[in-house]
Backbone:
């Protein structure tokens, strides 16, 4: 297992200042491994709600939790959302004998329960798959092809990695999704997710997808919301304002893990990836996830006009706007689209992230950023 010092530091900081820390992320992203660095799994302070014995220990939550001291871990909290009111009572004790590290595979219901019950008491930390920085620059191609889920990235062979991802998708479709929606059979869900994968990096035409599958548009939208809530997909919101241009107002769809995207697209090797029409979109999603995971920002959007001007990513940080373009080109040039975006949106800088070996200036406040430099210093795009 790779060390994750940044994630460990974020959780430590959150535990110092908050009564409850909610670590959210997709299944198998390393949340449990991280939590076991704080509390040993055989400790009375550790509860795994997928374990029948631990679930039984929490049958009476106040009795089980009120005498514990130090850090208390509750894993897979989405199985028992009714615990949140008890955690609110326990978090309000003075002096505070225990702080709670709560882990969940981020479901919409989980977020709603925590917001309602623990307002002002909970701090959220998102833990996704391995970042490029955690994997190391030398493993860039492996991380891109396999994705960042620990068991996929660290698999002994490409075949083992592909098999794990296939099993992971099957488990999501056959075990997790039915808990939230039973309208679609597993075979139809797989077809729907594959359609989503083919729209990766684009504004997803939900009506077109629905018509192609013979299902309601509302059903397609509902399942996209579920994938977003489970941190499998990202619907990047459009930025629009009154700038005198007709602007696109639909979100852009990304699969957050490149390995899952490649499994759905049937890509099983670097050769297949580099020759696939979705190669550029896959690279774009990889870079955008790295930026959003590690670059300080308050908000993030994309922007496009119906006349063709666009910018892949707009970051808002400390009152300024920064633009990011992602290109699979070694020597990109300044484009009219970039000039229009910079002038129209008042961008402080545009960074063009590429797989090139060196970073260099393109024009005033426009710079090519080599991927290795982004991995070493994610602040270089703001």
Residues:
């Amino acid at each position: 297992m790779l060390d994750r010092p940044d994630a460990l530091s974020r959780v430590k900081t959150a535990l110092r200042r908050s009564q409850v820390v909610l670590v959210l992320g997709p299944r198998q992203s390393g949340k449990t491994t991280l939590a076991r660095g704080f509390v040993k799994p055989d400790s009375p302070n550790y509860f795994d709600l997928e374990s029948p014995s631990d679930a039984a220990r929490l049958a009476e939550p106040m009795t089980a939790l009120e005498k514990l001291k130090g850090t208390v871990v509750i894993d897979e909290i989405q199985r028992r959302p009714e615990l949140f009111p008890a955690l609110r009572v326990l978090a309000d004790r003075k002096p505070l004998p225990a702080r709670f590290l709560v882990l969940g595979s981020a479901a919409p219901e989980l977020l709603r329960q925590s917001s309602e019950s623990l307002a002002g008491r909970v701090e959220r930390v998102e833990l996704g798959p391995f970042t490029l920085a955690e994997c190391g620059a030398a493993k860039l191609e492996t991380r891109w092809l396999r994705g960042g889920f620990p068991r996929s990235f660290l698999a002994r062979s490409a075949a083992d990695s592909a098999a794990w991802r296939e099993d992971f998708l099957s488990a999501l479709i056959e075990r997790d999704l039915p808990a939230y929606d039973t309208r679609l059979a597993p075979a139809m869900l797989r077809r729907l997710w594959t359609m989503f994968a083919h729209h990766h990096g684009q504004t997803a035409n939900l009506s077109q997808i629905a018509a192609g599958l013979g299902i309601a548009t509302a059903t397609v939208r509902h399942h996209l919301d579920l994938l977003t809530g489970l941190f499998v997909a990202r619907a990047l919101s459009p930025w629009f304002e009154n700038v005198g241009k007709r602007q696109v107002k639909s979100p852009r769809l990304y699969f957050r893990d490149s390995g899952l995207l490649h499994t759905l697209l049937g890509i099983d090797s670097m050769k297949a990836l580099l020759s696939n029409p979705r190669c550029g979109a896959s690279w774009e999603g990889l870079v955008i996830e790295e930026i959003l995971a590690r670059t300080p920002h308050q908000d993030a959007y994309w922007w496009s006009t119906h006349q063709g001007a666009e910018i892949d990513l707009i970051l808002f940080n400390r009152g300024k706007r920064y633009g990011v373009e992602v290109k699979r080109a070694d020597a990109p040039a300044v484009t009219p689209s970039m000039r229009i975006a910079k002038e129209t949106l008042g961008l402080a800088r545009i960074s063009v992230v590429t797989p090139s070996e060196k970073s260099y200036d393109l024009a005033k406040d426009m710079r090519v950023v080599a991927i290795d430099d982004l991995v070493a210093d994610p602040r270089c795009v703001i």
Remarks:
- Residues 165 and 340 are 41 Å apart (CA to CA).
- The mean pLDDT is 92.
- The longest helix spans residues 158-176.
- The longest strand covers residues 98-105.
